[in-house]
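Dear colleague,

Following up on Tuesday's group meeting, I ran the structure prediction for the four-component complex that the binding team flagged. I've pasted the input sequences exactly as they went in, so you can double-check that nothing got truncated or mislabelled along the way. The structure tokens for the whole assembly follow below. Feel free to forward this to whoever is handling the docking comparison.

Inputs:
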Amino acid sequence: MATETTRPVLRVDIKRPQRADARRNFDALLSAAREAFAEKGVDASLEDIARRAGVGIGTLYRNFPTRQDLLSAVYFGEIEELCLAAEEAADLPPWEALTTWLRRFVAYVATKRAIWESLNRESDSFQEAREAMYAAGTPLFERVQAAGEARADMSIDDLLRMVSGLTGCNFVDEEQRDRVLQIALDGVRAR
Amino acid sequence: MATETTRPVLRVDIKRPQRADARRNFDALLSAAREAFAEKGVDASLEDIARRAGVGIGTLYRNFPTRQDLLSAVYFGEIEELCLAAEEAADLPPWEALTTWLRRFVAYVATKRAIWESLNRESDSFQEAREAMYAAGTPLFERVQAAGEARADMSIDDLLRMVSGLTGCNFVDEEQRDRVLQIALDGVRAR
DNA sequence: ACTATAACGGAGGCACCCCTCCGGTATCAA
DNA sequence: TTGATACCGGAGGGGTGCCTCCGTTATAGT
């Protein structure tokens, strides 16, 4: 389903370089950045990223003139995947579809701190990512509400902030995180 | 009630200096630090704090040899107040007592980022603060559970992490924060 | 008033980060 | 093979923060 999607697109036009050596560096930088951002959040040191990639700092700046460019290149793809996951879940019954997607959402957020931060920072370029996530989640949530299985006095914004808040803080272990999340979602259910 | 409490004490023994000028600086540092920590979180720059206090960096280090010493001096007092609030709420009916205290808890956490961080960091000296908070909240929560008004399969640790998670992330406004918190607490209620 | 000394404050060494600039190098088309 | 050039890397200047050290100053007891 939806192979030729017209979903609001997250366009990043940082072009992969032409020359072979340049392409190698470009890719190394991307994966080093993915690693560093996941580990230290969006404030990870750019010099550290260049080091991890085994590349000079100059090369980093040539490919990604600003920190935002690098962040975008790394994360917009992943958020895109999240949006796709929402479409895939659409076949399930309303409540399962929603929780399935949220589970996926949580899995992402837990490891990729930047996604979480993108929900919590006031930044233009993150705005776009946030909107894409909301657009993806809204149909799922509205379906649940239409089925009378979730309280009507709640928005997707409420829901995602709730889930991301619970995901963004430390728990003793995964088991506790799931349990607490489950409890909070119980509050979302219509009674 | 409990004027001569034997509650686990948060002891900080950084002694206020003897000489008049030293005492002035000590106090100025404390309030500058309170301000800076609230504003920028526990990572606020020590040099900035000294500047705000109108004092040399050396003076800061003389009074508070480590960042932890300063943090402790600032926050343990406030956490102590939080614990007192729990005792005061004890007169109310179980569920109200708990939510009254949690409301207080939220009010603190929202403005004092360090308290929130103290729940989310792995640090020895915060451990102590965390334990004090837990000790204060446990009676309230257990009372609610005993009254059958909260689900039994949840601990005070679960509850506080849930609340602090929801408090620690941004909401559009206070109203949304309260609404979402209310929804999550609905999930805590026994059905 | 005078002095012993507690307390001051900021210069300075070290570390890290950001970003620019440019001499050197690897690539690729001819 | 070779030359034009796209691309490299890191030195270096500017900024901030941490913490120590020590010459200078204010205080308090006599």
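Residues 1-11 of chain B have pLDDT under 50 and may be disordered.

Cheers,
M.
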